[in-house]
């Protein structure tokens, strides 16, 4: 009996040697080591030869048994070959030698498609900072690159510069879906390129959808024509960036969008491929800063499947922990799926193969229908076979009597959602849709959905017949509220960027007219009721209507210095990449930890330069030893004068990167600093006894400086005296005794001129800039010789003040004459012209 068992095992699984790899030929199981029954799918990590550098956000395309990989983000300091090809049969990597001198710049977050005997690469991030609209082609025969189109800067015509988009070839055209643009944010357009004519165009869809970024998409064919499914990604909605779990279908023939059931799992930087009538989604990043998430969800190992015919989601149970990653690529053959590279805290170069379960492993109808691990099966003619939407199967007598179609509905799991979708899907107009309980009509997309769903444009669906239009109205323009910045707003001819209650918003032109009228009416009512002059507007002047984008603030991506970047409220600066980005795009731009630190805030003058210097990746920008060592790659080279002078330079614990001929090791401070640090304005010539012993301190500060380290300018002087720089006298034209010791802003005694017929209001707050103020001077010069002057002062909030009124006139002596001194919170007085003018 024991011998028979051993013989059976030998027959079931035979191991052979093939190019130094163990290959198992399994009869009743799956996997490289026959580790899984055929009723379940299996993942195998493929042992490869000639391994290449790890990469993420690259692009892959399958040609016969070879997977071409181009571009991708990678860590510096390693050899990076591009393009590289993985051969499925030989399980080996091969770098491709490119002929000719023309090469595209390195990039990531781009797309790659094949048309005839060329590869076409579009968009992406080049030089790790610039998003491009370049189109390149690679000839598979000559192995040469050709630039098919330059970078387009015009926002009115395609191609728009995008990254994190997706692309598919349908007939003789390439369809580009969504992506992120550095000036207008999430692109909602479908951009279409004709390979034969070389012309670009926008899709003509009238359905209003939100654009998205780092989503996935798959192309498949139905009896009704070609369709593309878009799943997940990051999108702009509810005034913020959000991960989404939504699924949309794009009908290529009719250029229409429709919503499909959401997965319930929010992801971006995942992959999706079509295998056996299923869209299979692998990995991704599920982290959302607006919600509490666990660390593991940054790198998802989940494998989901969406049944395209049945419109149903389910999980595939054979996912393995090693699949945790995002930024990978996936391609599908006719029977398998391959996953390549990605990021899980390090750049990956591994290859994984997914083999779905086999329908033939089931012998009964219920077993056949329950097989969902990467395959969809149908029980026909007493056999469990792979489902094909283009095949009509032989029906049993019972299913024929029930009028069931084995082609679709009979093989779908009969869930409540499935039933609701089926009922609503059958309704083709608004009236019939809302007549069905639980259904609602979406005008954008002309779609009937269960009323707990969501329309493609995010608008509320119609659920009552009174709201259904009796005529076929033209589609409405894109809602202004779908634009999230000035440029995307002004691209909509019927909208304008307008400040409402202190917040810039995209509103319709007719609403802007009404708001302006309301503001003017309120001001006129105030003037009429209080007999006060009109107030000057405190909000920024409105941007003129029209599509002139020059009125919009500069986009963050066009600012190339830290100081320029921080002057814009919505911008932030990344020192390690020397890049200015929109605050809302931080997670989008640096998914792989490229930004080691960042600088943000809305300050002025010196505060800008100080913030930028503190976070600078340029060592020489740091002016003190303490600041210098905040940057991991920087150290302090002391000049030996014992005054604290020195230079911040790049280096390591062993010494500076470029030490120079006179370098001495005792001058180098990589983890600590010299004593005192007097910035060149004093010396360490005093000692102080502390609990830890004797500590050297700076002597008396010279050169109009003060502070523990002589790091500040003394009163009456301003500047940045650190590391030997000088302090300059305040320049206040005799109107102030002191100034800000950093910026030189004068603490003026005279606040401002009081214009005639104008109310001047100022506030004193408990802030540093007001602490110097003990008295405020204001002056007024009457300009009419025949008019009395009425003078009034009032202090709000029950405050009290000593009010002194001085008059200088040519009627009196040249020195000012004090007319009155009043301890009051309100003063009213009138003076005749003779007190000011000499006739």
Automatic annotation (TrEMBL):
Q: Which InterPro entries match?
A: Beta-prop_ATRN-MKLN-like, GBD_ATRN, Kelch-typ_b-propeller, Kelch_1, LE_dom, LMN_ATRN_NET-like_EGF, LZTR1/Attractin, Plexin_repeat
Gene Ontology annotations for the cellular component aspect, listed alphabetically: Golgi apparatus; membrane
Membrane topology, as annotated, equals: Single-pass membrane protein
Localisation: Membrane
Name the keywords, alphabetized: Disulfide bond, EGF-like domain, Glycoprotein, Kelch repeat, Laminin EGF-like domain, Membrane, Repeat, Signal, Transmembrane, Transmembrane helix
Question: What sequence ranges are listed for the domain Laminin EGF-like?
Answer: 676-729
* Pfam families reported for this sequence: Beta-prop_ATRN-LZTR1, EGF_LMN_ATRN, GBD_ATRN, PSI
Q: Which domain of life is it from?
A: Eukaryota
Q: Which cysteines are joined by disulfide bonds?
A: 701-710, 713-727
Name of the protein described by the UniProt record: Plexin repeat-containing domain protein
Give the organism, scientific name: Oesophagostomum dentatum
């Amino acid at each position: 009996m024991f011998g028979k068992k051993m013989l059976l095992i030998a027959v079931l699984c035979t191991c052979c040697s093939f190019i130094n790899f163990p290959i198992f030929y399994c009869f009743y199981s799956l996997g490289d080591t026959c580790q899984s029954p055929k009723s379940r799918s299996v993942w195998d990590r493929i042992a490869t030869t000639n391994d290449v550098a790890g990469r993420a956000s690259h692009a892959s395309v399958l040609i016969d048994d070879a997977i071409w990989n181009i571009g991708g983000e990678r860590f510096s300091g390693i050899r990076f070959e591009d393009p590289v090809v993985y051969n499925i049969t030989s399980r080996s990597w091969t770098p491709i030698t490119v002929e000719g001198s023309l090469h595209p710049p390195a990039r990531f977050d781009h797309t790659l498609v094949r048309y005839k005997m060329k590869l076409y690469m579009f968009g992406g991030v080049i030089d790790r900072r610039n998003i491009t609209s370049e189109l390149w082609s690679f000839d598979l025969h000559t192995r040469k690159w050709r630039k098919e189109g330059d970078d387009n800067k015009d926002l009115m015509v395609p191609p728009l510069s995008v990254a994190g988009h997706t692309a598919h070839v349908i007939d003789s055209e390439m369809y580009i879906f969504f992506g992120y643009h550095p000036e207008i944010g999430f692109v909602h357009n479908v951009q279409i390129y004709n390979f034969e004519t070389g012309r670009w165009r926008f899709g003509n869809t009238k359905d209003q959808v939100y654009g998205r970024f780092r989503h996935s998409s798959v192309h498949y064919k139905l009896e009704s024509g070609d369709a593309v499914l878009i799943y997940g990604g990051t999108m702009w909605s509810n005034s913020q960036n959000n991960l989404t779990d939504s699924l949309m279908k794009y009908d290529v023939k009719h250029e229409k969008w429709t919503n499909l059931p959401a997965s319930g799992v929010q992801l971006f930087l995942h992959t999706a491929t079509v295998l056996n009538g299923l869209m299979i989604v692998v990995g991704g990043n599920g982290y959302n800063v607006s919600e509490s998430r666990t660390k593991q969800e940054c790198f998802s190992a989940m494998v989901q499947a969406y049944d395209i015919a049945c419109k149903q989601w389910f999980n595939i149970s054979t996912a393995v922990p090693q699949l945790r990653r995002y930024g990978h690529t996936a391609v599908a053959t006719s029977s398998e799926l391959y996953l390549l590279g990605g990021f899980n805290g390090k750049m990956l170069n591994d290859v994984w193969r997914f083999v779905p379960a086999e329908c033939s492993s089931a012998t009964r109808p219920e077993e056949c229908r329950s097989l969902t691990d990467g395959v969809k099966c149908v029980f026909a003619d007493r056999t469990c076979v792979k489902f094909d939407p283009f095949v009509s199967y032989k029906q049993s007598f019972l299913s024929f009597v029930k009028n069931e179609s084995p082609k679709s509905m009979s093989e779908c799991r009969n869930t409540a959602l499935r039933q609701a979708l089926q009922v609503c899907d059958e309704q083709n107009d608004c009236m019939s849709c809302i007549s069905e309980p639980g259904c609602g009509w979406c005008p954008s997309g002309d779609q009937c959905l269960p009323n707990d769903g969501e329309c493609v444009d995010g608008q509320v669906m119609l659920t009552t017949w009174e709201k259904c239009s009796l005529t076929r109205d033209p589609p409405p323009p894109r809602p202004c509220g779908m634009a999230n910045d000035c440029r995307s707003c002004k691209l909509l001819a019927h909208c304008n960027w307008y400040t409402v209650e202190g917040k810039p918003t995209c509103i319709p032109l007719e609403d802007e007219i009404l708001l302006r009228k309301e503001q003017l009416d309120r001001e006129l009512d105030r003037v009429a009721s209080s007999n006060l002059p009109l107030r000057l507007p405190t909000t920024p002047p409105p941007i003129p209507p029209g599509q002139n984008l020059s009125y919009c603030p500069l986009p963050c991506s066009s600012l190339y210095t830290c100081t320029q970047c921080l002057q814009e409220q919505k911008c932030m600066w990344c020192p390690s990449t020397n890049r200015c980005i929109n605050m809302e795009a931080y997670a989008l731009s640096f998914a792989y930890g490229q930004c080691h630190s960042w600088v943000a805030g809305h300050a002025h003058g010196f505060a800008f330069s100080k913030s930028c210097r503190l976070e600078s990746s340029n060592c020489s920008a740091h002016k003190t030893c303490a600041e210098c060592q905040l940057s991991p790659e920087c150290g302090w080279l002391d000049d030996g004068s014992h005054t604290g002078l020195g230079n911040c330079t790049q280096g390591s614990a062993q010494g500076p990167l470029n030490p120079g001929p006179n370098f001495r090791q005792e001058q180098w401070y990589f983890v600590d600093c010299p004593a005192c640090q007097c910035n060149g304005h004093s010396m360490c010539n005093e000692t102080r006894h502390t609990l830890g012993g004797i500590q050297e301190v700076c002597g008396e500060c010279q050169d109009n400086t003060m502070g523990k380290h002589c790091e500040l300018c003394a009163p009456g002087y301003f500047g940045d005296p650190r590391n030997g720089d000088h302090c300059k006298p305040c320049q206040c034209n005799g109107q102030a005794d002191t100034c800000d010791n950093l910026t030189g802003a004068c603490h003026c005694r005279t606040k401002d001129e009081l214009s005639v017929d104008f109310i001047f209001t100022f506030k004193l707050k408990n802030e540093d800039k007001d602490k110097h103020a003990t008295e405020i001077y204001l002056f007024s010069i009457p300009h009419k010789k025949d008019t009395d002057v009425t003078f009034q002062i009032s202090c709000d909030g029950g405050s009290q003040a000593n009010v002194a009124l001085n008059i200088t006139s040519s009627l009196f002596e040249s020195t000012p004459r004090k007319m009155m001194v009043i301890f009051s919170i309100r003063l009213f007085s009138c003076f005749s012209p003779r007190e000011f003018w000499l006739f």
